[in-house]
User: Fold these one by one.
Assistant:
Number 1:
Amino acid sequence: MRLSRRARILLRIGVGVTLAFIYIPLIMIAIYAFTGGTTLEWPPPSLTTHWFSVAVKDHAVRDAFWTSIKVGLAATAIALVLGTCASLAVARHRFFGREAVSFLVVLPIALPGIITGVALSDSFTQVLGISLSLFTVIVGHATFCIVVVYNNVIARLRRMSGSFEEASADLGASTWQTFRYVTFPTMQTALVAGALLAFALSFDEIIVTLFTIGAGQETLPIWIFNNLFRPTQLPIVNVVAVLAVLISIIPIYLAHRLTREEGGAAAARGGGVRAEPVVAEATAMP
Amino acid sequence: MSGKSSGNPARVAWSIVASLVAFMMLFAAGCGSSSNNGGSTAGELKKLGKGEGQVNLVEWPGYVEPQWVKPFEKQTGCKVNNKDAGTSDEMIQLMRTGQYDGVSASGNATARLVDGGDVAPVNVDLVPNYKTIFPDLKNQPYNTFDGVHYGIPHGRGANLLMWNVNDVKPAPKSWSIILDPKEAAKYKGKISVYDDPIYIADAAVYLKAHDPSLGIDNPYELNDKQFSAAVNLLKEQKPNVGEYWSSATKQISSFSNGNDQVAATWQYQYFALKADNQPVAVTPESQGFVPSEGATGWSDTWMISSKAKHPNCMYKWMDWIVSPKVNAQVAEFFGEAPAQSKACNFTSDKNFCDKYHAGVPAFWKRVYYWQTPVADCGNGSSDCKDYNDWVNAWTDIKG
Amino acid sequence: MEAADALASAPKRSVGRRLADLFHGRSRLQVAALLAGPLGWMVIIYLGSLAILLVAAFWGVDPLSGELTKSLTTDNFKTLWNDSVYRDVAWRTIRTAALVTLTDAVLAFPIAFYMAKVASRRTTAVLVVAVLMPLWSFYLVKVYAWDIMLSANGIVNSVLGHIGVNGPGFGITAVWLVESYLWLPFMILPLYAGLERIPNSMISASEDLGAGPFTTFRRVILPLAFPAVVAGSIFTFSLTLGDFITPQLVGGGTQFIGNVIFSNITNNQPLASAFAMVPIAVMIVYLLIARRLGAFEHL
């Protein structure tokens, strides 16, 4: 596209403004992480990595981290299975209520988290009579992670026509063999992208978790919630945030590459760029 | 091929709404079980057994601190899991989940917990240190119901008026600095008050002194006229309020960052700010820490859950927290009057109990402990506002 | 003879194969098997829980014990209607959510367009990572960073002080600012994906027909990207609509729908449930409109 000089400059300014807006608060957090500051001081005290070692050694942080990982993996696994099943049904079959499925799976993310949280909490404790625990947290997380996997997979399935699967059946493959040798390989990268997103969603989730977690347990966001305003703990909180951001570079890049390849192949087929929306299922943090 | 696909979006929405309504009717028909045993209480523990290895507590900030938790864990083998709560509502919400063994409840929570069947009676014979609790804390309407003990007193205190000495001069002696519209306007946006319907009682305490024609006696028992006056006062205060706080630690941070200059607060925040060398002050000891009108306050009680999974550890905790040395530690750390009379021998400041009027019932007449507002005014009439009215009014006040 | 022998000794089909054959060609059976899990989960666990919560809107409550009195009543709706504060809160929340959506759309467009059409492959990859990284720095930490920045002694006040303007402090402006900040990545990504899908040939055609870049933007790119914007808006709108933590931390006493629900959950769950119907109804309508505008293809 030919852009006039003025348009190009304006565009670059727009990009700069947005990036600055996004990163100024993060830079502040990083400064606090490296100075251990709790209130504003100017000039800031000297930089140190002391708090990084404190954070890594802190038992509560480590436990919370592993709890978050466990919950994230379990919720993602459930979401993968359920999301894939739902998208297969919707993309490859016609049935009464088909349109409703897309609508239904997006509800947990679209409705306020406090409503989902309280509803689930009440059901668990009052109707089912079970205690709140990591299990109930996982159920809550899986519920809103389903849509993330569903959207990714169904977008992929829609772009891959059903004719491959028909051909496979014509050649004598059973339903299961068709899935295993034809459908699944094409879905794979969409599954990984969806899984990464679902995991990210679960990892940062606070509101539904607040209502569904049991006594004495903490995911990382819950730990932050409990320690955010404690002056002695605040530096550790900032460090945790900085570490999370840095570590996240890898999965984000991975997801982008995975779906980018698909887009590259499609572009090679000619015509406009029809790249797969990357991690386009914006993840919600109910 | 199966039937035609339903492409109509409105039909989609209606089908979801319809299934929701169907479910709702199912539950309305009584499928859902009630969580509360409404009034029927679990029995009290008859005998103390072995500790279960764990105890889950809900508490006010500053009540469960490592200094006395670690020795407790070592001595009893009960690991303490605790959760800070900022308001009585939060405490009740947590207790209703049945996840916690005990709670340090104030008077605006105790009646509700008892009535809701969320707490069990306490067998005070199993708590040896109960014997030497100050007499004026025993058998009180906020911890004893129908003659049955429901908790072990922890300590008591008054809500404080705190200000930044650099910004607020001269030192205020009255709540009017934040409740009188003209005075409060001077600190517009810099005032911080407690985010809880119970704060309406603070306005009532103020009006009791400044508008005797209203005839307010107990700030928690307000008829229509008295209640409206208190609510209107708070509505006039709202434009000047910068923050309604429910997290004690957040209020500390707000004062440090210069967002707040004068506030209704607790001792916990005051001492934390002083420890950080912040320029804050509260109504001095010479005035009994209480401004001229008096103040609301609290007398807290440790209660045990009716669904407690670790009752033995909970009893051990209750005995521990009111043992003389520990209760002295707690009282000095937080800045409240201890419940344990023998604690006065163990405070590091020998005059602590005197300063805090620990055993002086007359002093506490100016402090109106938090209590649950109920319709029954207690003097024959039952036209007082109940807690639902208070909650609705609070939403109204904040706008 | 040989054929008959061959048939008679045909290999037995395994259990797995038999099961697969059962499903072969039977669309309804496949659908039923596939949907049993997800639909069962969504309907029983999610809709069921929602129903339990919402049915309480028609009940009363004992203010002391919190016990629900299960006799049908419309008192809660009467309270919501009669007291204007609930209308004010609902309208304030919806207004802010719309404003946040608009703000994010404006902020997202330049960078999304740059990534989709102008930047090189490598720059785009860098920008995608740059846009997504903040998502991992935890909601609470980001809001707290803004809390500090907007404080009386904070950086916003000191910078604006240099040009003689007072910072917004805490209040609804702060909430708008912070919410716009938090959900911006959720607008950038679908928009980027949607812009990428616009064939370059269309843009070239528009230029060949004599349109300048701004006209092309207005009459070709914007309409084509609109469904993607709507897709992103689902998140910016719904996340703002339901948030109660940000108003609590930087709102200075401002009440949003989520705050009112939160304050009533313990003492008056029926009222909280009744009020919860407001954001649910708003979002269902919003989703229907969004779907009509084609946003669901861009999620």
Number 2:
Amino acid sequence: MSDLHELCEVAISAASDGEAVEAYAEETRRVEVEAHKGEVEGLTFAESRGVGVRLTARGRLGYAYAADPSEDEVRRAVAQARENAGFASEDEHQALPSSSSIEPIDGLFHEDQAAMDTDRRVRLALDLERVATSSDPRVGKVESAQYGDAVSRVAIASTTGVSAEYARTDCWCVVVTLAEEDDETQTGFSFRVGRRLAELDWQDVAREGVERAARMLGATKPQTARVPVVFDPFAGSSFLGVLAGALAAEAVQKQRSLFAELVGEQVAAEIVTLVDDGRLLAGPAAAPFDDEGVPTGRTELIGSGVLNGFLHNTYTARRGGTVSTGNASRGGYRTTPGVGTSNFFVDAGGSSYEEILRAAEGGVLIQDVSGVHSGANPISGEFSVGATGLRISGGALSEPLREMTIASTIPEMLRSVAAVGSDLRFFSSVGVPSLLIGEMTVAGV
Amino acid sequence: MLDRDLVRDVLRAARSRGGSFAELFVEERASVSIKLDDGKVEELTTGLDRGAGVRVALGTSFGYAFSNRLDRGALLEAAGAAAAAVKEGSPGEVVDLRTLEPGVVHRAERPAADAGAADKVSWLRAADDAARSVSPEVRQVVASYGDSVQRVLIATSDGRWVEEHRPRVRFYVTVVAGRDGNIQTGSYGPAALSGLEFFDAHPAVATAEVAAKRAVTMLDSVPAPAGEMTVVLGPGMGGVLFHEAVGHPLESDIVDKEASVYRGRIGQQVASTLVNGVDDSTIANGWGSFSFDDEGAPAERTVLFEEGVLRGWLYDRLRAEKDGAPSTANGRRQSYAHPPIPRMTNTYILNGASDAADVLASTDRGVYVTNLGGGQTNPATGDFVFGVSEGFLIEGGEVTTPVRGANLIGRALEVMSAIDAVADDFGTWEGVCGKDGQGVPVGSGSPTLRISRLTVGGTGV
């Protein structure tokens, strides 16, 4: 750990007068095992390290990075960032954060997880495939069965007083099953993430992958109708990315957010609470500080349906006359910090899954949506997506449905939430429980 | 990049337990990216990446390990880790490394590194001005410039030694236009495997104007109709659909896992007789082109469809060896940090005989799609969905009102068979294709083509 910090120190000691320099160093060790037909199909060991240097001088920002740099290469990156800053536009809000006291998060790093031996990983991937292919006669194959884990270390230091580091363990397993009957094939996806293997319910991933594929066999295209719609957490999570973009202050300040003028307004049903919480240990993105060294915390973006505010990093906070919410985010050492979510979720509500199904009699449970990324307009909130799911009848799931489309707008959907499930679940760093939407048009034939 | 003795030692260490072959992929990538947003140069980033990945194969299984250190110790350690994936065996042979000369060379006349940051910033400023001068309704412009030079070395235990420089340039503009409460976006981002002569064919100003016109046009849009109807795809867009809905299920790893809707259909008529499709990494300066793929196989043109008959798969080395077929040079990877997998390069539907204007004029009612926002496909079922980012109604053979919020939903087999006209105005679209967490540059291309019946999901009636 110390050598990441030393690399940061090399960078900040290369600062000249009148400059602020920040160095962000990260190191990741990742192992993934892919099982197929009872054999290890792929075993990948990944190790990477890099440093990104952010430099500001007279309101101008420059950035440079280097993979696994020597001390000389770090100093060269500082010089390169300095040169790049010379071409940037002056911006009075451009500045690095100053130091804050940072509270570590207990349970973020597990020594036993970091020291896991590869045989155990291999066994898990093989077991995952075996269970997924032996519990239903129609599901005899997987497209993918994978176990992976990672140990990450991050250090950050700046001439403005930031000096912090953390280490984190993550693990995950994913399965995509194939259910076959006659000439038809359906796929079933499931995925879970955790801090350590001991707490990762992989049997449930296998079970769920099988169930989600098998229950889609025989799917038909429904008649177009306006009916109650339930989004299960898999389907609901697809929409959170659109919300995340619109709630970042960057989008608001650049007039690219559908929420721009709506702080203090009722933007969702009263039962909707939308939260970003970087300190939530159960969330994959948990970290004691954000990607520019500002402490993370809980931000209630929508409370009782009312929009309270936006996510900020240091830059957007200065520009908006407020304080950072600890949401500086970057895609690793190669990029400058923008604004992004940490653990971003619709908070669990009071309805059980069964209650939600009972309340949606005659409606449709959506288990998968496709095309949200391309089919939703992040600015207007309009979307039209493809969907697969099942009819709800007698409080239970009945016939499977495919080739449906759902079209609405994000604001309309938020306002129409009629029940929020208690089954909150995280997918990568977004989480959502089952949601009942009053009525939507489900288009088929 | 590395000396041959060291490379040979690494390959030997990788074959310490045998396996069918070992491979070393070494990469250095220098990149520049500049973003102009809201009239300001927000950031200028320069980066240097390097690393090496060692792969040991055994049938279609493999062990892969990489490091971003290139010293002997790190490389031998990676080789040992990758070898550990192979069960106990006796050491395999490493034959003499012989340099393969490229059959196809993509020239970069004016290397991006020869231009200064000031020039690159000036192109972004020109794009910003050009987009804003299209209409007073243009509210925001985000223009980005990116160049990179990827130097690779690929060496294999069966004697392959391949080196390649891949210079890439991309210019991307997104424009937000607004009228009262109505806000629409338009974007355009040509790209090439090329030097800065790229801008001769794609001037920054022209790229900005296309993006701005798209955004402004969509201000007049009405909600798209929903239901089954005739869809005409403009130049390039049929290629995007072909890539997603057809190309992915033809990738040999998906076929091998019995997760392809096209499995067992080689030689069958699975598309309209008007469809001739290829994947071609030899296209001069194509965004998805190269001299060698990331396993060291020479670039080639692979016929996928001939008059609607399925002719072949997209092979990487592992799957080709399993099937006893030659690789089609489709083994690609995002970087040294990723094992190669079967990927597309430039995937095209070739020109037909119709005139594009006639195709539209002979369409009574439908939707004309001039830009797609991206899509998703399930290779096992062939189900796909595409967002339409720029489209129009066709009424009585005329292209009329723009439509928004549309998507195209269908199944690969049915849609390819429903193509009833293919024009001769071939165009391309460049993008980054994601699969298994790896992004690679890909080109798509097609002339205008018509699908007689396709489900359009829209919010209108």
Number 3:
Amino acid sequence: MTKQNKTDTNSAPLLLSHFTLTTAVGCGIEENLEALKNETSGLRRNDFLDVDLETYIGRVSAIEEQQLPAALSDYQCRNNQLAYLALQQDNFNSAIEQAKKRYGAHRIGLFLGTSTSGILSSELAYQTESFRSTGQLPDSVHFREQHNSFSVAEFVRSLYQLKGPAQVVSTACSSSAKVFASAARYIELGLCDAAIVGGVDSLCLTTLYGFNSLELVAKEVCRPADKNRQGLSIGEAAAFILLEKSDQLPAQSTRDRSNQQTPVYLQGYGESSDAYHMSSPHPEGLGAFQAMQSALQHANITAPDIDYVNLHGTATAINDLMEDKALAQLFSKPVSCSSTKGWTGHTLGAAGAVDAIYSALCIQYNFKPKSLNTLCVDPALTQNILDQTQYSTVKTVASNSFGFGGNNCCLILGEQT
Amino acid sequence: MIVYLKSVGIAAPGIAGWEEAINVFTETNHYSPAPVEKKLATILPPNERRRATRVTQLAMYAALQTDTPERNDRSLNQCLQVFCSSNGDITTFHQISQALAMDGRPVSPTRFHNSVHNAPAGYWSIATQTKTPSTSITAYSDSFSAGLLEAAVQLNSSDNKQHRDCLLVCYDEIPAEPFQPQAHITAEFACALRLSLSSENALACMDIQIDHQSQPLTILSDPAIEHLRQANPQAAALPLLAAIARQDNKKILLPYFEQGLEISLSALAQHQE
């Protein structure tokens, strides 16, 4: 493309025209929505493989039974099985097929976030007697198709025969928030007409033992914003969203294709770096503040327009306190906010996309979920941590995601274009 | 989509820096691939230097070269940041997996934070105090093109109102031994491109687009350099870097999925000192 595209850029707001997710609370939108409303957590006492850590996890049942199509069997690993399971829900398959007919396979971009990819397959190979004696990985380990961080995108691309631009963003726990920003820019500059964005992260030994080594894992269920919080519960999830330009859709279809629900748009995004520490956020929340502030600017709204903030809210003291400080800088009055990690656990590279879909559901069903598992809100926190789920009009939501390396992203979702 | 190239950093066997790259690309039979130095110049403070792994050091070494002393450039930490690697840090994965196979599974917390794909980007932002947006991506063997495209897109997007420059850093290590049969990387390679919306003091102008005509990919005529191109996914940059070094005005086709990435290059020698 040439320079002229910059002038005829189409910055029509992007519609989340279809979405689906699978988390520890269930497969698909309906099960997730029910769990949010019924306040049922998906966390369970750790029962993952032979992991001997006393903790709770957000494990997705039925991943192991997923059999990928025979032609793609080299991609068989926990991460791609989870992606495949999620893609079977909510008629997402047919939404992609329709989008292909509408735009052409080469005009649909694919932007996915993951931090774990399918490294579990390689980790387990290292545990075998045969690896210990030979130092060689067995034939069942396929580096490109399972282990490499791009494997989930290559799998989805092959599954739907997509030919458009593709990339995996892997910036730890902000990965699948940032894919929205990437996709929006590619669409704006005419490199694709629509995009599939999302995040897939699966349980593995590295993240469980790694976060444990940093003393960030709670022995009990995670209690975001609680004065007695111990840390995070690790979860796994897959979430996918089809982003389309609202002015390109056939009349009426905005509503039809969102299952008669209020259409939700990506109103803005903001990204920043802490430049502070590899595994600890800036204690005053400077990077978090900067990301939220630029998201508001990009959405062309001000802080009072935000009805609810879906917090990064990992339930570590350092995260919860710095995120609160960042919010206090932005909001002159305490804002209604909560973390939904009490339902799903921290799904790491999938958290941004999971939280974006939860935010969209808050807008469509007009509710603000409570801070689940929180028994007594930390008095040091200044914002309005919801101790009860509130059923009231929600038009605009900010969703925060912060990752290792000080990588921050905030998304603004709303029903206004 | 137009971007200007301001400066280049490179770390590859037999090519330690852009001056050496110009010699290698402009003089015949000049290339001899000695391994990349073990000890690389760094701006990391001692603590981080000890913690940063080889692939981070390699990426930062290339990135640092884009801050040329002649330009007395103090704006490096105003650049948008795009980091790109096919495989990330497999050495660290290997070390963690070895620990996970031991009694008690003693994973080191430092190794754990080094294991994230965006570790080099994190170290870079801390060392240079760069607080701009930073992404770390992969597109497997097409990663260099994906990184270049992402950088050009970030600069040209209307949501970028503040930043004139973007630092693109592309790197891959030689993987740990168990992965070598599958991840065919036999040479270390890192390059960094300082890209800009401004033509001032630029080496070249690049018009970047996705190619839909399936034109043949650009390869290198020198067999030794062509061998290097195939030895690392990020060395896909070499045909582009060679053309820039020779101040060629030509189209370069780099691998990008089914299509290829077309870069129309115009040298801007008149701007050079």
